[in-house]
User: Fold this.
Amino acid sequence: MNGHRRARRRVTAALVAGVVSLGVAACGVPVDSHPSALSRRGIPFNLLAPTVSTVSTTTAPSPIEVPVHIFLIGPTDHLVAVARDVPVSAPDLATVLGALLAGPTDAESAAGFQSALTTQTTVLNASIAGGVATVNLGGTFGQLVGPPQIQAVAQVVFTASALPGVTGVAFELSGQPVEVPVASGAQVPLANTSQFAALAPVAPPAAP
Assistant:
């Protein structure tokens, strides 16, 4: 009796396994006895395509610059013109004077160039009208006395006069008009380059 039941169970299990195999085959799903690599032809195209992440960066264009001249004190105590680049959109008097107040570069200092204007001097405002450049300074400019003050005034006068149309420079200290010393020691309300002949840049020797 028990033998018949065991035989009947084996037949039933075999029938169930056969039905499952037929069902899987009918669904079109292949059955492998062990793992195998898929062919590239069997993989959807979009799964093979590499994923590329795009990051857009915006680079601000560099401002166009123009050369201007500022005047430093050379090794012989005469003024020397050196070039500076400023944005073409702002080649105004205040910008040029700001470049002057920045002082000499490391290379210029090594060559013996210096400035009587301290870095604590500030340009409050500057304008040009009728050929006169009006320079309103603050900070430590008013503390200069003696030869350093004359040199500092000469630097500002020559730098401002290098701009087109400037024939003289008037000084203000924190908004108040002031007289400044020239090379002779005289105090003047309006300074120009001819009053600093003793400090003027030395012309290079003529070619033979």
